[in-house]
Amino acid sequence: MTYSIEPLFQPLQLQNITLRSRIVMSPMTRCFSPGGVPGQNVADYYRRRAEAGVGLIVTEGAGIEHPSALGSGAAGEDNIPVLHGEAALAGWKKVVDDVHAAGGLIFPQLWHMGVLRTPGTGPFPDAPSSRPSGIWGPRDGVHSMPPAYAERMLPPTEPMTESEIADVIAGYARSAASARAVGFDGIAIHGAHGYLIDTFLWETTNQRTDRWGGDRVRRTRFAAAVVKAVREAIGGAVPIMFRYSQWKLQDYNARIASTPQELETLLRPLVDAGVDVFDASTRVFSAPAFEGSDMTLAGWTKRVSGKPAMAVGGVGLSRDLMSSMAEGAMPVNNLDQALARFERGEFDLLAVGRSLLADPEWALKARRGEPFKPFSPEHFGQLD
Ligand SMILES: Cc1cc2nc3c(=O)[nH]c(=O)nc-3n(C[C@H](O)[C@H](O)[C@H](O)COP(=O)(O)O)c2cc1C
Protein backbone atom coordinates (compact mmCIF):
# COMPACT_ATOMS: atom_id res chain seq x y z
CA MET A 1 0.00 0.00 0.00
CA THR A 2 1.37 3.37 -1.05
CA TYR A 3 -1.26 5.31 0.84
CA SER A 4 -2.20 5.22 4.50
CA ILE A 5 -5.70 3.88 5.08
CA GLU A 6 -6.20 6.07 8.15
CA PRO A 7 -7.89 8.96 6.30
CA LEU A 8 -10.79 6.55 5.63
CA PHE A 9 -11.14 6.20 9.39
CA GLN A 10 -11.44 9.93 10.04
CA PRO A 11 -14.84 11.21 11.18
CA LEU A 12 -17.25 13.10 8.91
CA GLN A 13 -19.93 15.48 10.11
CA LEU A 14 -23.16 15.30 8.12
CA GLN A 15 -25.82 17.65 9.41
CA ASN A 16 -26.51 16.58 13.03
CA ILE A 17 -24.54 13.32 12.96
CA THR A 18 -20.85 12.38 12.94
CA LEU A 19 -19.74 9.25 11.10
CA ARG A 20 -16.72 7.68 12.78
CA SER A 21 -15.35 6.35 9.48
CA ARG A 22 -15.80 6.88 5.76
CA ILE A 23 -16.63 3.23 5.08
CA VAL A 24 -20.34 2.84 4.38
CA MET A 25 -22.26 -0.40 3.97
CA SER A 26 -23.97 -0.15 0.59
CA PRO A 27 -27.72 -0.96 0.49
CA MET A 28 -28.27 -4.63 -0.33
CA THR A 29 -31.63 -6.41 -0.61
CA ARG A 30 -31.44 -9.61 1.43
CA CYS A 31 -34.98 -11.10 1.47
CA PHE A 32 -34.78 -12.30 5.06
CA SER A 33 -37.77 -10.41 6.52
CA PRO A 34 -40.87 -12.66 6.34
CA GLY A 35 -44.02 -10.60 5.82
CA GLY A 36 -41.84 -7.49 5.54
CA VAL A 37 -40.79 -7.68 9.21
CA PRO A 38 -37.05 -7.66 10.03
CA GLY A 39 -36.22 -10.00 12.90
CA GLN A 40 -33.31 -10.53 15.27
CA ASN A 41 -31.27 -12.21 12.51
CA VAL A 42 -31.41 -8.98 10.50
CA ALA A 43 -30.44 -6.93 13.59
CA ASP A 44 -27.48 -9.26 14.25
CA TYR A 45 -26.36 -9.04 10.61
CA TYR A 46 -26.18 -5.24 10.64
CA ARG A 47 -24.74 -5.10 14.18
CA ARG A 48 -21.79 -7.29 13.15
CA ARG A 49 -20.80 -4.77 10.43
CA ALA A 50 -21.18 -1.81 12.83
CA GLU A 51 -19.02 -3.57 15.44
CA ALA A 52 -16.19 -3.95 12.93
CA GLY A 53 -15.90 -0.24 12.13
CA VAL A 54 -18.37 0.52 9.35
CA GLY A 55 -19.14 4.23 9.81
CA LEU A 56 -22.66 4.13 8.38
CA ILE A 57 -25.00 1.35 7.39
CA VAL A 58 -27.48 1.97 4.60
CA THR A 59 -30.03 -0.80 4.92
CA GLU A 60 -31.39 -2.92 2.14
CA GLY A 61 -34.17 -1.20 0.19
CA ALA A 62 -37.30 -1.11 2.39
CA GLY A 63 -40.75 -0.67 0.86
CA ILE A 64 -42.38 2.70 1.46
CA GLU A 65 -45.99 2.96 2.56
CA HIS A 66 -47.68 2.55 -0.82
CA PRO A 67 -49.41 -0.59 -2.18
CA SER A 68 -47.31 -0.83 -5.33
CA ALA A 69 -43.94 -0.15 -3.68
CA LEU A 70 -42.81 -3.78 -3.61
CA GLY A 71 -43.06 -6.99 -5.55
CA SER A 72 -42.00 -10.33 -4.14
CA GLY A 73 -38.40 -11.38 -3.54
CA ALA A 74 -36.51 -13.48 -6.10
CA ALA A 75 -37.90 -16.77 -4.74
CA GLY A 76 -41.49 -15.46 -4.96
CA GLU A 77 -41.81 -14.82 -1.22
CA ASP A 78 -42.80 -11.60 0.53
CA ASN A 79 -39.62 -11.26 2.54
CA ILE A 80 -38.40 -7.80 1.53
CA PRO A 81 -38.74 -5.50 4.55
CA VAL A 82 -41.23 -2.62 4.64
CA LEU A 83 -41.16 0.69 6.51
CA HIS A 84 -44.71 0.84 7.79
CA GLY A 85 -46.96 -1.05 10.15
CA GLU A 86 -46.44 -1.81 13.81
CA ALA A 87 -44.64 -5.14 13.46
CA ALA A 88 -42.09 -4.00 10.85
CA LEU A 89 -41.38 -0.76 12.70
CA ALA A 90 -40.84 -2.67 15.97
CA GLY A 91 -38.43 -4.95 14.08
CA TRP A 92 -36.56 -1.95 12.68
CA LYS A 93 -36.37 -0.36 16.15
CA LYS A 94 -34.47 -3.42 17.37
CA VAL A 95 -32.14 -3.24 14.35
CA VAL A 96 -31.45 0.45 15.02
CA ASP A 97 -30.94 -0.06 18.77
CA ASP A 98 -28.48 -2.91 18.19
CA VAL A 99 -26.48 -0.95 15.61
CA HIS A 100 -26.36 2.06 17.95
CA ALA A 101 -25.23 -0.16 20.83
CA ALA A 102 -22.31 -1.23 18.62
CA GLY A 103 -21.37 2.42 18.03
CA GLY A 104 -22.74 2.59 14.48
CA LEU A 105 -25.15 4.79 12.56
CA ILE A 106 -27.89 3.58 10.24
CA PHE A 107 -30.16 4.99 7.49
CA PRO A 108 -33.00 3.01 5.91
CA GLN A 109 -33.11 2.98 2.12
CA LEU A 110 -36.59 4.13 1.04
CA TRP A 111 -37.62 2.07 -1.96
CA HIS A 112 -40.45 2.05 -4.50
CA MET A 113 -39.81 -0.41 -7.30
CA GLY A 114 -42.00 1.38 -9.85
CA VAL A 115 -41.81 -0.21 -13.30
CA LEU A 116 -39.52 -2.99 -12.01
CA ARG A 117 -42.17 -4.46 -9.73
CA THR A 118 -43.51 -7.67 -11.27
CA PRO A 119 -47.28 -7.17 -11.54
CA GLY A 120 -49.38 -9.54 -9.42
CA THR A 121 -46.67 -10.03 -6.81
CA GLY A 122 -45.75 -8.48 -3.45
CA PRO A 123 -47.78 -7.72 -0.34
CA PHE A 124 -50.53 -6.08 -2.48
CA PRO A 125 -50.61 -8.26 -5.61
CA ASP A 126 -53.66 -6.47 -7.07
CA ALA A 127 -52.04 -3.04 -7.00
CA PRO A 128 -51.01 -1.82 -10.46
CA SER A 129 -47.26 -1.25 -10.92
CA SER A 130 -46.39 2.46 -11.13
CA ARG A 131 -44.98 3.65 -14.44
CA PRO A 132 -44.56 7.40 -15.11
CA SER A 133 -45.50 7.04 -18.80
CA GLY A 134 -46.56 3.40 -18.93
CA ILE A 135 -43.12 2.57 -20.41
CA TRP A 136 -40.99 -0.21 -18.87
CA GLY A 137 -37.78 0.48 -20.80
CA PRO A 138 -36.22 0.28 -24.26
CA ARG A 139 -36.79 -2.85 -26.36
CA ASP A 140 -33.07 -3.04 -27.21
CA GLY A 141 -31.71 -2.39 -23.70
CA VAL A 142 -28.68 -4.38 -22.52
CA HIS A 143 -29.75 -6.24 -19.40
CA SER A 144 -29.43 -9.58 -17.66
CA MET A 145 -33.13 -10.41 -17.25
CA PRO A 146 -34.52 -13.49 -19.00
CA PRO A 147 -35.73 -12.40 -22.48
CA ALA A 148 -39.21 -13.88 -21.85
CA TYR A 149 -39.53 -11.78 -18.69
CA ALA A 150 -38.56 -8.58 -20.52
CA GLU A 151 -41.09 -9.41 -23.27
CA ARG A 152 -43.79 -9.72 -20.62
CA MET A 153 -42.86 -6.35 -19.07
CA LEU A 154 -42.45 -4.40 -22.35
CA PRO A 155 -46.10 -3.79 -23.36
CA PRO A 156 -47.14 -0.28 -22.29
CA THR A 157 -49.49 0.24 -19.35
CA GLU A 158 -51.45 3.22 -18.06
CA PRO A 159 -49.27 6.17 -16.97
CA MET A 160 -49.41 7.18 -13.31
CA THR A 161 -52.24 9.54 -12.51
CA GLU A 162 -51.84 12.82 -10.64
CA SER A 163 -53.45 11.33 -7.53
CA GLU A 164 -51.23 8.23 -7.66
CA ILE A 165 -48.17 10.49 -7.84
CA ALA A 166 -49.41 12.45 -4.82
CA ASP A 167 -50.08 9.21 -2.90
CA VAL A 168 -46.58 7.88 -3.59
CA ILE A 169 -44.94 11.13 -2.47
CA ALA A 170 -47.02 11.06 0.72
CA GLY A 171 -45.95 7.42 1.22
CA TYR A 172 -42.27 8.42 1.12
CA ALA A 173 -42.94 11.13 3.70
CA ARG A 174 -44.84 8.81 6.04
CA SER A 175 -42.17 6.12 5.89
CA ALA A 176 -39.43 8.71 6.51
CA ALA A 177 -41.32 9.98 9.58
CA SER A 178 -41.79 6.39 10.81
CA ALA A 179 -38.07 5.73 10.32
CA ARG A 180 -37.17 8.72 12.45
CA ALA A 181 -39.68 7.65 15.09
CA VAL A 182 -37.82 4.34 15.56
CA GLY A 183 -34.44 6.07 15.76
CA PHE A 184 -32.84 5.90 12.29
CA ASP A 185 -30.10 8.56 12.01
CA GLY A 186 -30.98 9.82 8.54
CA ILE A 187 -32.80 8.81 5.37
CA ALA A 188 -31.42 7.27 2.18
CA ILE A 189 -33.59 7.59 -0.92
CA HIS A 190 -33.25 5.06 -3.75
CA GLY A 191 -33.32 7.16 -6.90
CA ALA A 192 -31.24 4.76 -9.02
CA HIS A 193 -31.13 1.58 -11.14
CA GLY A 194 -34.40 2.06 -13.08
CA TYR A 195 -36.78 2.00 -10.10
CA LEU A 196 -39.60 4.51 -9.69
CA ILE A 197 -37.74 7.77 -9.00
CA ASP A 198 -35.17 6.96 -11.68
CA THR A 199 -37.86 6.39 -14.30
CA PHE A 200 -38.93 10.01 -13.84
CA LEU A 201 -35.30 11.16 -14.32
CA TRP A 202 -34.76 8.98 -17.41
CA GLU A 203 -36.05 10.38 -20.70
CA THR A 204 -36.74 6.89 -22.09
CA THR A 205 -39.33 6.14 -19.40
CA ASN A 206 -40.55 9.68 -18.76
CA GLN A 207 -42.38 10.94 -21.83
CA ARG A 208 -44.94 12.91 -19.83
CA THR A 209 -46.10 16.23 -21.17
CA ASP A 210 -47.51 17.50 -17.85
CA ARG A 211 -45.51 19.15 -15.06
CA TRP A 212 -43.74 15.86 -14.20
CA GLY A 213 -42.06 15.52 -17.59
CA GLY A 214 -40.25 17.52 -20.26
CA ASP A 215 -36.65 18.71 -20.24
CA ARG A 216 -33.98 17.51 -17.79
CA VAL A 217 -34.98 20.04 -15.12
CA ARG A 218 -38.65 19.11 -15.35
CA ARG A 219 -37.78 15.41 -15.14
CA THR A 220 -36.19 16.08 -11.72
CA ARG A 221 -39.49 17.38 -10.33
CA PHE A 222 -40.74 14.06 -8.98
CA ALA A 223 -37.41 13.27 -7.28
CA ALA A 224 -37.28 16.81 -5.88
CA ALA A 225 -40.87 16.53 -4.62
CA VAL A 226 -39.99 13.29 -2.83
CA VAL A 227 -36.88 14.85 -1.25
CA LYS A 228 -38.86 17.91 -0.19
CA ALA A 229 -41.63 15.81 1.36
CA VAL A 230 -39.06 13.72 3.22
CA ARG A 231 -37.31 16.88 4.42
CA GLU A 232 -40.60 18.27 5.72
CA ALA A 233 -41.31 14.98 7.48
CA ILE A 234 -37.95 14.69 9.26
CA GLY A 235 -36.95 18.31 9.89
CA GLY A 236 -33.97 20.37 8.87
CA ALA A 237 -31.03 18.86 10.75
CA VAL A 238 -31.35 15.20 9.78
CA PRO A 239 -29.25 14.06 6.79
CA ILE A 240 -30.79 12.93 3.51
CA MET A 241 -28.70 10.77 1.18
CA PHE A 242 -29.81 10.40 -2.44
CA ARG A 243 -28.67 7.51 -4.64
CA TYR A 244 -28.72 7.92 -8.41
CA SER A 245 -27.08 6.08 -11.30
CA GLN A 246 -26.49 6.30 -15.00
CA TRP A 247 -27.14 2.57 -15.55
CA LYS A 248 -30.56 0.95 -15.24
CA LEU A 249 -31.53 -2.68 -14.74
CA GLN A 250 -33.53 -2.30 -17.98
CA ASP A 251 -30.42 -1.01 -19.82
CA TYR A 252 -26.91 -1.10 -18.42
CA ASN A 253 -25.80 1.38 -21.11
CA ALA A 254 -28.38 4.04 -20.24
CA ARG A 255 -27.23 7.53 -19.31
CA ILE A 256 -29.20 10.35 -17.75
CA ALA A 257 -26.37 12.86 -18.09
CA SER A 258 -23.84 12.87 -20.96
CA THR A 259 -21.76 15.81 -19.75
CA PRO A 260 -20.86 17.41 -16.40
CA GLN A 261 -23.17 20.30 -17.34
CA GLU A 262 -26.11 17.91 -17.78
CA LEU A 263 -25.24 16.32 -14.46
CA GLU A 264 -25.30 19.70 -12.78
CA THR A 265 -28.72 20.42 -14.29
CA LEU A 266 -29.95 17.15 -12.82
CA LEU A 267 -28.44 17.42 -9.34
CA ARG A 268 -28.98 21.11 -8.53
CA PRO A 269 -32.77 20.85 -8.05
CA LEU A 270 -32.19 17.91 -5.70
CA VAL A 271 -29.75 19.97 -3.62
CA ASP A 272 -32.30 22.78 -3.50
CA ALA A 273 -34.94 20.27 -2.34
CA GLY A 274 -32.81 19.15 0.60
CA VAL A 275 -30.24 16.45 -0.35
CA ASP A 276 -27.18 16.53 1.95
CA VAL A 277 -25.05 13.79 0.40
CA PHE A 278 -25.10 11.97 -2.94
CA ASP A 279 -24.49 8.27 -3.50
CA ALA A 280 -23.30 8.01 -7.12
CA SER A 281 -24.00 4.36 -7.89
CA THR A 282 -21.45 2.92 -10.31
CA ARG A 283 -20.40 -0.68 -10.90
CA VAL A 284 -16.68 0.19 -10.83
CA PHE A 285 -15.75 2.96 -8.39
CA SER A 286 -12.68 4.08 -10.37
CA ALA A 287 -14.38 4.29 -13.80
CA PRO A 288 -14.09 7.72 -15.49
CA ALA A 289 -17.56 9.27 -15.83
CA PHE A 290 -17.20 11.49 -18.89
CA GLU A 291 -14.87 11.71 -21.88
CA GLY A 292 -11.78 13.85 -21.51
CA SER A 293 -11.16 13.33 -17.79
CA ASP A 294 -10.39 10.40 -15.49
CA MET A 295 -12.67 11.79 -12.77
CA THR A 296 -15.29 9.38 -11.46
CA LEU A 297 -19.04 9.94 -11.21
CA ALA A 298 -18.66 10.55 -7.46
CA GLY A 299 -15.98 13.14 -8.22
CA TRP A 300 -18.16 14.99 -10.72
CA THR A 301 -21.13 14.71 -8.40
CA LYS A 302 -19.23 16.45 -5.64
CA ARG A 303 -17.89 19.11 -7.99
CA VAL A 304 -21.17 20.06 -9.66
CA SER A 305 -23.45 19.70 -6.63
CA GLY A 306 -21.16 21.17 -3.98
CA LYS A 307 -22.28 18.36 -1.65
CA PRO A 308 -20.34 15.42 -0.19
CA ALA A 309 -20.37 12.35 -2.42
CA MET A 310 -19.98 8.61 -2.01
CA ALA A 311 -18.16 6.28 -4.41
CA VAL A 312 -19.10 2.62 -4.85
CA GLY A 313 -18.45 -0.41 -7.02
CA GLY A 314 -15.98 -3.27 -6.74
CA VAL A 315 -14.13 -2.16 -3.62
CA GLY A 316 -11.99 -5.11 -2.46
CA LEU A 317 -13.03 -7.37 -5.35
CA SER A 318 -11.75 -8.41 -8.77
CA ARG A 319 -15.08 -8.18 -10.58
CA ASP A 320 -18.15 -5.96 -10.67
CA LEU A 321 -21.55 -7.09 -9.40
CA MET A 322 -23.03 -8.26 -12.71
CA SER A 323 -20.01 -10.34 -13.71
CA SER A 324 -19.79 -11.92 -10.24
CA MET A 325 -23.37 -13.26 -10.24
CA ALA A 326 -22.45 -16.71 -11.51
CA GLU A 327 -18.83 -17.19 -10.48
CA GLY A 328 -18.21 -14.82 -7.58
CA ALA A 329 -15.15 -12.57 -7.33
CA MET A 330 -11.65 -12.84 -5.91
CA PRO A 331 -10.44 -10.50 -3.21
CA VAL A 332 -8.09 -7.73 -4.36
CA ASN A 333 -6.73 -4.88 -2.35
CA ASN A 334 -7.61 -1.97 -4.64
CA LEU A 335 -7.80 0.49 -1.78
CA ASP A 336 -4.75 2.39 -3.03
CA GLN A 337 -6.77 3.45 -6.07
CA ALA A 338 -9.62 4.58 -3.84
CA LEU A 339 -7.28 6.36 -1.43
CA ALA A 340 -5.52 8.25 -4.23
CA ARG A 341 -8.88 9.68 -5.29
CA PHE A 342 -10.04 10.22 -1.73
CA GLU A 343 -6.86 12.18 -0.93
CA ARG A 344 -7.49 14.36 -4.00
CA GLY A 345 -10.89 15.16 -2.50
CA GLU A 346 -12.89 13.39 -5.25
CA PHE A 347 -15.28 11.85 -2.76
CA ASP A 348 -15.97 11.77 0.98
CA LEU A 349 -17.40 8.30 1.58
CA LEU A 350 -16.62 4.86 0.18
CA ALA A 351 -19.49 2.38 -0.02
CA VAL A 352 -18.78 -1.33 0.15
CA GLY A 353 -21.28 -3.95 -0.94
CA ARG A 354 -20.32 -7.56 -1.66
CA SER A 355 -17.05 -7.41 0.30
CA LEU A 356 -19.17 -6.78 3.39
CA LEU A 357 -21.46 -9.69 2.54
CA ALA A 358 -18.44 -11.96 2.28
CA ASP A 359 -16.97 -10.72 5.55
CA PRO A 360 -18.64 -8.71 8.34
CA GLU A 361 -15.15 -7.76 9.55
CA TRP A 362 -14.04 -6.36 6.20
CA ALA A 363 -13.59 -2.78 7.50
CA LEU A 364 -11.43 -3.97 10.40
CA LYS A 365 -9.32 -6.09 8.06
CA ALA A 366 -8.89 -3.18 5.65
CA ARG A 367 -7.62 -1.02 8.51
CA ARG A 368 -5.20 -3.68 9.72
CA GLY A 369 -4.02 -4.61 6.23
CA GLU A 370 -5.23 -8.20 6.64
CA PRO A 371 -6.25 -10.31 3.61
CA PHE A 372 -9.85 -10.13 2.37
CA LYS A 373 -12.13 -13.10 1.72
CA PRO A 374 -13.42 -14.02 -1.74
CA PHE A 375 -17.06 -13.30 -2.63
CA SER A 376 -19.04 -16.32 -3.76
CA PRO A 377 -22.58 -16.51 -5.20
CA GLU A 378 -23.54 -18.43 -2.02
CA HIS A 379 -23.26 -15.15 -0.13
CA PHE A 380 -26.40 -13.92 -1.93
CA GLY A 381 -28.41 -16.49 -0.01
CA GLN A 382 -26.82 -16.12 3.44
CA LEU A 383 -27.38 -13.66 6.26
CA ASP A 384 -24.38 -13.98 8.51
C1 LIG B 1 -27.25 -8.82 -2.98
C2 LIG B 1 -27.30 -7.38 -3.43
C3 LIG B 1 -28.45 -6.65 -3.24
C4 LIG B 1 -28.50 -5.30 -3.61
N1 LIG B 1 -29.63 -4.56 -3.33
C5 LIG B 1 -29.61 -3.21 -3.50
C6 LIG B 1 -30.66 -2.40 -2.97
O1 LIG B 1 -31.61 -2.87 -2.30
N2 LIG B 1 -30.60 -1.07 -3.20
C7 LIG B 1 -29.57 -0.50 -3.90
O2 LIG B 1 -29.56 0.72 -4.08
N3 LIG B 1 -28.54 -1.26 -4.38
C8 LIG B 1 -28.52 -2.58 -4.16
N4 LIG B 1 -27.43 -3.32 -4.54
C9 LIG B 1 -26.25 -2.65 -5.14
C10 LIG B 1 -25.19 -2.34 -4.06
O3 LIG B 1 -25.64 -1.37 -3.15
C11 LIG B 1 -23.88 -1.83 -4.67
O4 LIG B 1 -24.11 -0.60 -5.29
C12 LIG B 1 -23.28 -2.81 -5.67
O5 LIG B 1 -23.27 -4.13 -5.16
C13 LIG B 1 -21.85 -2.42 -6.04
O6 LIG B 1 -21.02 -2.47 -4.90
P1 LIG B 1 -20.00 -3.73 -4.66
O7 LIG B 1 -19.24 -3.87 -5.96
O8 LIG B 1 -19.14 -3.26 -3.52
O9 LIG B 1 -20.81 -4.93 -4.36
C14 LIG B 1 -27.37 -4.68 -4.21
C15 LIG B 1 -26.22 -5.45 -4.42
C16 LIG B 1 -26.15 -6.79 -4.00
C17 LIG B 1 -24.87 -7.54 -4.18
Description:
The chain is α/β, with parallel strands linked by helices. It has a single domain, classed as TIM Barrel, CATH 3.20.20.70. It contains 13 helices and 10 strands. It has helices spanning 40-51, 86-101, 147-153, 162-181, 196-201, 216-219, 221-234, 260-273, 297-305, 321-324, 335-343, 354-358, 362-368, and strands at 12-14, 17-19, 23-25, 56-63, 106-111, 187-190, 240-245, 277-281, 309-312, 349-352. It has an 8-stranded parallel barrel with strand order 3-4-5-6-7-8-9-10, surrounded by 5 helices. Strands 1-2 form a two-stranded antiparallel ribbon. Helix 4 packs parallel to helix 7 (221-234), helix 7 runs parallel beside helix 8 (260-273) and helix 8 packs across helix 9. The chain is globular and about 55 Å long. It starts with 11 loop residues before the first strand and ends in a 16-residue tail after the last helix. The relative contact order is 0.14. The mean pLDDT is 97. Flavin mononucleotide (FMN) binds next to strand 4 and helix 12.
